[in-house]
Amino acid sequence: MPTFVVKTFGCQFNELYSASVIEMLERAGYEQSRTLDRVSLVVINTCAVREKAQEKAFSFLGEAATAVDASRIIFMGCSATLDQERAKRIAGHEVHIIPGSAGIEEVLARVQAIAACAPAEPMVPHSLFPTADIELVRGCESYCTYCIVPRARGRESAADAEVVLRQAKDSIQHGFRELLLLGQNINRYHWSGGGLIELLSALDRLDGEFWFWFLSPHPAYFQRAEVQRLMQLEHVEHHVHLPLQSGSDGILKRMNRRYSMADYDALAGAVRSDSRWTLTTDIIVGFPGETDEDFEATVAAVRRHQFDGVFLAKYSDRPGTPASAMPDKVPQKTIDERHSVLLQVVRDLSLQSNAAMVGGSVDVLVLTAGASGDTFGKSRDGRNVWFEDQGRLSHPVGSFVRVDINHGSREGLYGICST
Ligand code: SAH
Ligand code: SF4
Questions:
Q1: What spacing in Å lies between the alpha carbon of 143 and ligand 1's midpoint?
Q2: pLDDT of 4-48, one tens digit each?
Q3: Which of 22, 89, 161, 176 is the most exposed place for a label (fewest CB within 10 A)?
Q4: Is 364 helix (H, G, I), strand (E, B) or coil?
Q5: Is the pTM higher than 0.85?
Q6: Ligand 1 center to residue 147 CA distance, Å?
């Protein structure tokens, strides 16, 4: 049986595309391999958001090129748009390159041609069960000055709402329990029925037992009234990921984020009006020109909003972005210091948020069933939950359960299933 390896770096989009490729190859009789040894095909799905991720992808490409012939390697995703010459230098001219701007139909068609397998319809991959990832907006035209995504992924396009609703309905009928809608700036979604919130309202009216969530909203394109409408929906998960990036108005302006701290506070305040809802964010430390005062403003904003979770990134210079040409680069040592100061604050907040749940109980969607009776899932407000499952596998993946919480750590909650 021919074998293959798919290596995935980066975001949820890459996870979705890789899962679709894996599903197509498996249907064609290929088997996934743990090692590069004698595989028929290697697919490397790359990220370029930070230098480190990009370097890892190229380094894996080098590893693959020593194990298999270049004509058996597919290099796809953001780094494949940006540095095709380097990919060819590393692996040889025969390497197949699929740029990050290619949509899933194109990716599947290219892989199908290379692997000589039957065509596949883009559909929700089963390996993501119980979560159905659905692409709403492809590409990005928001042009945050630090970000490579608009160059790597190309122009924005919105999925057909009828297709989205059909995919959602089919997924629920096939037992999927969470719909995860994706867009780099998902608030840019538009269709004949309106925008994102109208589509979410239409999804909310579907029959069945399911939750839905979406990534990533952009504060400049999200209205307070829309947040309030969102929070009225029946099937929505009770958490919002609202990337702040910096707490300083001056830095936000130079990041081209198009909102002020006051705008952000108003949106976040709407989420916080219901104490059951959690709020998470992304922060970049060390953007060019970030002063001590700017950094302090970010720390203050993080403390003020008491984020339940923060993805903290050190600014990474991406060649070709406007920020990369800005003067006053922050020295790496200062970036590292600021990162560790903020990391401590962020960790304390996560612990505090989870510790506050002890003694209560939460609704959980089971994501993986542990072999030793330790089951893992996601609470409706987006937390990791590990719980003891008295009879092993009595709550299979995709079940909704109630868990009594007896411990909270930085990483999540621990408890005992009471259903
Ligand atoms: N479209 C999403 C995610 C984009 S990339 C959004 O706008 O939120 C995910 C995160 O990576 C960003 O939110 C940002 O915090 C971080 N990021 C993007 N470019 C970066 C860079 N050059 N250096 C460091 N972090 C970066
Ligand atoms: Fe990058 Fe900004 Fe687009 Fe997010 S919204 S992908 S940070 S340009």
A1: 11
A2: 999 999 999 999 999 999 999 999 999 999 999 999 999 999 999
A3: 89
A4: strand
A5: yes
A6: 6
